[in-house]
Amino acid sequence: MNTPISDTFARQLQDQRGALLARVRAQRGGAIGRAEAALDARAQASDDWAKANEERDLLIGLEERESAELVAIDAALQRIADGSYGLCLQCGVSIPAARLHAQPTAERCVGCQDTQEKHGH
Fold first, then answer.
1. What does residue 94 show for φ and ψ, rounded to 5 degrees?
2. Which terminus of the chain is more exposed, N or C, with fewer CB under 10 A?
3. What's this model's pTM, rounded to 2 decimal places?
4. CA 34 to CA 4: how far, in whole Å?
């Protein structure tokens, strides 16, 4: 992929990364961690442990999803840096720019992604 296009996707990914980190910070109320949030939820609902556990599980689930998203963004930025961005990791063909604009962290072409999802690999 040529440099001006790679730069466009790099900016898009950096913006996405910054927005994700800002959202995580806002959700945590600053630097609060997963364990602290769970304890806080239990303290606020001391009579309702089931609800506190549900809230903790939701928070952990959100954190895991956001962590996975951050890993995907960083991996895409690394592919830009090493020149492999925009190439399917499975078959090596170029991923269409429209797909990358819609999903800048895409690692595979549509065909390979469909195959992976069908086979669960």
1. -70, 135
2. C
3. 0.68
4. 39
Question: How confident is the model over 86-108, as pLDDT tens digits?
Answer: 999 999 999 999 999 999 999 99
In DSSP terms, 94 is beta-bridged to 87
- In whole angstroms, give the CA distance from residue 95 to residue 70: 21
Q: Cα–Cα distance between 121 and 113 in angstroms, integer?
A: 10
Q: How confident is the model at residue 45 (pLDDT cuts 50, 70, 90)?
A: very low
Concatenate the DSSP letters of all residues of the chain into one string: --HHHHHHHHHHHHHHHHHHHHHHHHHHTTT--HHHHHHHHHHHTTT-HHHHHHHHHHHHHHHHHHHHHHHHHHHHHHHHHHT-TTB-TTT-PBPPHHHHHH-TT--S-HHHHHHHHHHT-
Domain residue ranges in the chain: 1-84, 86-121
